[in-house]
Amino acid sequence: MDAYIYQDKKKLRCGYTTGACAALAAKSAVRCLVSDTRREEETILVPGGLLVRAKPEDWRISRDKEGRIRSAECAVKKDAGDDHDATDGILIYVRAEYAGDASKAEEPDSEKLVFIEGGEGIGRVTKAGLDQPPGEAAINSVPRRMIQEEAFKILEEYGVRRPLRLTVSAPEGVRIAEKTFNPVLGIEGGISILGTSGIVKPMSSEALVETIRAQLKVLYFEGRRTAAAVPGNLGAGYLTDYVFCGQENTLRKERQIKRFSDSLVICSNFIGRTVDMAGELGFSGLLLAGWESWGTGSWTPIPGKATQGWIRFCPARWRRERTGLCC
Prior knowledge:
single chain; alpha+beta; CbiD-like; 5-stranded mixed sheet; 9 helices; 31% helix; 27% strand
């Protein structure tokens, strides 16, 4: 992809999201299904305003006894550009097949004619508070719309009004998901199909901030009104040891530690953003734990020591307020 940004005086190449990959694969697979033609390259305009081009690969076509195509499937390789992305290079597949007879709708649209499902390697949502409800495939709303719109364009181009079933899959998704935040967010069995702009910007903070927001929303929908945030593994380890100090090592303790660790919000350096998002969502309090020189902007911890800080949100204006600090 020929789009670049400059970060710390370095020229970095942008990439495209798993959502853009799915939309490109869907467009090519639907074209093959309805016209029995395959293009060397497909192009889409992503919500971020850029044209994204990719070459569909690994075609899998099924035909009936008369030689007509029953289903068409192809993949698009994820290109994260110069970003360090766990899903870089993964193949995102879409299988297109007819879901019924010609539609009787007078004014058919993409939602009425194009149905999307998650297949192998696509995670399933198990907790409330995320973009999709529990039980649904982890294909977020913007990528769903992109997939539907690109498929519908092909139906209109070839004058076809039959409903479609599109199945998105990623065979490597189960393995790669373990390197993402999906297990913490309650997305099981694979990766998520993501992207609001369709573009991956190298070293961008947007993805991490949205992950923090998503985890806070999950905790809030679980009924929690206080949360704990740590900048990374050191803070998480300190807080876990602090909470479970003195308890005997039992299977129950291990399970409690696992559940506690999964509830910790890893906020990295986005402490202020995390506090703001917690307030916006309606949390009444936020426990912050860190190590050495880590600070919250509201106070400066004592160098060389582990620290905790408690933030209370005022209901009327959820203004940040320091209410305690212990070392």
